[in-house]
Every structure is written in C-alpha cells, then in structure tokens.
Design brief:
- By secondary structure, the protein is mainly alpha-helical.
- It has 9 helices and no strands.
C-alpha cells in the first residue's frame, strides 16, 4: 500500500469542506447529498468516504474550522493593549461577515442542525462556549482597564453582544431587502457607544436592570 501523503490528504479534506460549504449554502444541509459534495469536489462518493465517513462528519469539520479561526482571531485580540479597540476590531470582523449572504445562510444551517443532531449539538455547544468565554475575557480586561463601563457584567454583556451580532447575520440571511451597508454602519455605532464609560462614572446597577427614575 502506498503511504499517505499528509499534506495531500489535508488538501483533499479541505477541498471537500469547501465543496460542502457551497452545497450547504445553495441547497441546505438536508437536501445536500454526499454525491452532491463529491461531484462539486470532483471526486466519487466512494473516494470522498476515504476522507470523511459521513455528511455529519463534514459538517462537524465545518464547525471546527470556524472555531479554530475564531480562536486565532481572539488570540490576536487578547495580545492588544487596547482592549476596547480589540472589541471594535472584533465587531468589524463580524460585520464584514454579515455582508456575505453565504456565510449568513451557513450560520443559520449550523444552528438548525445543532437543534436536530446530538453529535453536532455537542460540537456547536462546545465551540459556542469557547467563543463566549473569549469574549467575556476581552470585556473583563477592558472593564479592568477602564476602557468600558466596569458596572457592566462581562458575562451578561457578552451574551447580548453575541445576540446582537448573530441577529444581524440572521437578518442578512432571511430578509432580501436588508440594507447590509446601512445596517453595518448602525450596528458598528451601537457597539461603539453601548459599553463606554459615561462621564467617568460606572453604572452600578445590574446589567439587566434599570436605574431609578
């Protein structure tokens, strides 16, 4: 048996992943068959199974690659002294993805499949927890440095910021009349203003509560 070239093997796996991304974006996960992915990747289904044992395995690799990309991006952000600037850079990265309708559609597919399949749900939940933890750390560091309002609880703020950015992706995927450029500018402005300290005073009430009238 001829030894496996690890570089070529990884290249072929990535070729399959890219083909699957195109198919999932066009047809959705359920309507995409392994034969469709193989055809798009230029190989037979039998050949494809040398690299992935199922369509679920390909989908799990898609999610895993997204996690690795996010981890690398957060590592670069954590290395910055200006944590608030790092937060805005993260927002710019997400907002750049909002204008890519294929990415928005794939985000919805990922969430939908996580609700249906326990195996994929475990992958999705693990990756989501890692992203939330990274964002909480970034917000906590920014609060300690006085770059955002220290009265805002990092865990709650991370959840709401993620909900805001994920909502923009959903809107981009579902609304054909969504003005991507205008929405991007508005969301960027909201993220700039929301967590900033106000007049040097921090909001001491809980993140979800309101102050007295």
């Amino acid at each position: 048996m001829r030894p496996i070239d690890p570089v070529q093997h990884q290249q072929r796996r990535q070729q399959i992943v890219e083909a699957a991304l195109e198919c999932f974006a066009e047809k959705g996960f359920h309507r995409t068959r392994t034969a469709d992915i193989g055809r798009r990747a230029g190989m037979s289904p039998g050949h494809l199974f040398h690299y992935f044992d199922s369509k679920d395995a390909i989908f799990a690799e898609v999610v895993e690659q997204d996690r690795r990309d996010a981890a690398a991006h957060f590592a670069a952000l954590h290395a910055r002294e200006d944590r608030y600037g790092a937060l805005l850079e993260l927002a710019d990265t997400v907002l750049a993805l909002v204008v890519q309708r294929r990415y928005a559609a794939l985000t919805l597919e990922t969430a939908a499949e996580a609700l249906r399949h326990p195996r994929l749900a475990a992958v999705f939940e693990r990756d989501d927890a890692l992203i939330k933890a990274d964002l909480e750390r970034l917000l906590g560091d920014a609060a300690q440095r006085g770059q955002i309002d220290p009265g805002l609880e990092p865990q709650a703020l991370a959840i709401w910021l993620l909900a805001l950015m994920e909502g923009a992706l959903m809107r981009a995927a579902l609304d054909p009349h969504f003005d991507l450029a205008r929405a991007r500018a508005t969301l960027r402005l909201l993220l700039e203003r929301l967590p900033r300290p106000r007049g040097g005073r921090s909001a001491r009430h809980p993140a979800g509560g309101g102050g007295r009238g």
